[in-house]
Design brief:
single chain; 506 residues; alpha/beta; Ribosomal Protein S5, domain 2; Rossmann fold; 2 domains; four-stranded mixed sheet; 18 helices; 18 strands
Length: 506
């Protein structure tokens, strides 16, 4: 007789049902696992030693179906052990078909957590499972999951007892209390601490309201990194669904993340490899762009990143997801983020500075800026020049991040109501944007004429329309205004933002 038990396999964030089939027969003592398991799919034979079950002179065959999907990780251990115990008669009741078993096992029978436990539980819910056995892990926000019963266990004996009808005196997922939730860091950056940079703050507010990408250029020490690191403080908190997505990605990448609603902020060094930024490996894992999902990816000194790596951002910036293809598998991870870049205006960094003289030639400046390809420039909605400010200027009351965030949240709500879904102006399909907010004939002619003079591509013109829609949302306007169109166009012209060149001739 063959026993079947359900577990969950993962392909990226997508889950699929894995039927664990076990047959034990009298033969030469051995244990065989088939169905494309990798080396991390450990044998669970020793886990039944706790029940004094003797498998001497027994052949144990474990089949993981579907056989054409490669099985990774140790989360099948619990299902394999339960199927073996059922085959040996230790579990007498029938195992429900709509129940999944997820967890790794130690040699003493303890059920332990592993990478990908949360996305596996979410996948089980989507696949129609009514209940799922999972190991105890205080970092799992299981209380956020609805319409699925999460049975938390610490030992395989508890699983057997529960299957036999006994009540568990074990841990149950509880909502974290206010005291347990991570407290807001008193050292967190706030816009009330940023002196000057009024135009930059305006640009960041627009970027936060519509999820627009932004590129800053300015001399060293002018405040680019400060503005970028303060930017997350004006972004709306994550929704429950977004939190689950983010925590799932961090689990798959084997990185820790606290249970809170703060948006992710990733700040990779410019020496990071393409695999670290995009994701990959023999068993593809999420990269920085996926860990920044629903948050901010800040590339400081963006011109120092390899051109190949930057060009690999083109697909994720357009589609909001990244597909990684390897010999054994192809996985897709979500990567919808706000890209914030910062760079110097020239190789020496002092072009336009009032304190230092630029020693770069025009050829060197052009070569430096060309490290960012045209398609990458086009994917930035806002091009912003930053100048140094006088920190000794008279003190006055500055807007706090909380005040700005309230306006950002109001603008986001207008967008969600307009599109009847949680999507922003920068991410909504252009056809829907124009259907909901068509331009007037005069506005279209103005944009076309200016674009012809500036040699703007169609992609840039679309981004200007998206920017204008966001600016109008901040102002509380139902339609795109002429003033919003003009302001959006000013954010796409380096010449108006850049200081006058002070480079020597070649």
């Amino acid at each position: 007789m063959t026993v079947k038990v359900t577990s969950i396999g993962l392909k990226g964030l997508e889950g699929y049902c894995v039927q664990v089939e076990v047959r034990i027969s009298t033969d030469t003592e051995s244990m065989v696992i088939v169905g494309l398991p990798d080396t991390s799919v450990k044998e669970s034979r020793d886990s039944i030693a706790y029940f004094d079950q003797d498998v001497t002179d027994k052949k144990v065959v474990v089949n993981l179906s579907p056989s054409d999907q490669k099985k990774n990780g140790s989360l099948f251990d619990l299902a394999i052990a339960i199927a073996m115990l059922k085959e040996l008669g230790e579990v007498k009741n029938e195992i429900p078909k709509d129940t999944a078993f997820i967890g790794a096992l130690s040699l003493d029978g303890s059920v332990v957590s592993g990478d990908g436990i949360l996305p596996a539980v979410i996948a089980a819910k989507g696949l129609g499972m009514k209940s799922v056995y999972v190991p105890y892990d205080p970092l799992l926000p299981l209380q956020m999951l609805e319409d699925i019963e999460c049975i938390v266990v610490q030992h395989i004996e508890e699983v057997v007892q529960h299957l036999e009808g006994q009540e568990l005196l074990s841990f149950q997922p509880q909502s974290p209390s206010i005291e347990d939730s991570p407290k807001k860091d008193s050292q967190q950056r706030d816009f009330s601490h940023v002196i000057g940079h009024e135009r930059a703050k305006r640009a960041l507010e627009i970027a936060a309201s519509g999820e627009h990408n932004l590129l800053m250029s300015g001399p060293p020490g002018c405040g680019k990194s400060l503005l970028a690191e303060t930017f997350p403080s004006i972004l709306p908190p994550l929704s429950n669904q977004s939190q689950l997505e983010v925590i799932s990605l961090y689990q798959l990448a084997s990185e820790k993340r606290n249970y809170d609603q703060t948006v992710p902020f990733r700040h990779p060094h410019h020496s990071s490899s393409a695999v670290a930024i995009i994701g990959g490996g023999s068993n593809p894992r999420p990269g920085e762009i996926s860990l920044a999902h629903r948050g901010v990816l800040f590339l400081d000194e963006i011109a120092e990143f390899s051109k190949k790596t930057l060009d690999m951002l083109r697909q994720p910036l357009e589609t909001g997801e990244v597909t990684i293809s390897r010999v054994h598998s192809t996985v897709t991870y979500p990567s919808s983020f706000i890209l914030v870049g910062a760079m110097n205006p020239c190789p020496c960094g002092y072009l336009g500075s009032h304190q230092h003289y630029c020693t770069c030639t025009k050829k060197q400046i052009l070569s430096y800026r060309n490290r960012l390809s045209g398609p990458i420039y086009d994917r930035f909605d806002i091009l912003l020049s930053i100048k140094s400010v006088n920190i000794n200027q008279p003190k006055r009351m500055l807007e706090s991040s909380e005040e700005i965030r309230k306006r950002v949240e109001t603008a986001r709500i207008r967008q969600y109501y307009r599109y009847q879904q949680e999507i922003s102006n920068a991410k909504v399909p252009f056809e829907i944007l124009m259907e909901k907010s068509p331009l007037t004939t005069k506005q279209s002619h103005t944009l076309t004429n200016v674009s012809a003079k500036q040699n703007w591509s169609n992609r840039v013109q679309i981004k200007i329309i998206r920017l204008a829609r966001t600016i109008s949302d901040i102002a509380g306007e139902e339609k795109v205004t002429d003033q919003a169109i003009w302001e959006a166009m000013t954010f796409r012209r380096w010449e108006q933002n850049q200081p006058k060149m002070m480079a020597r001739e070649t």
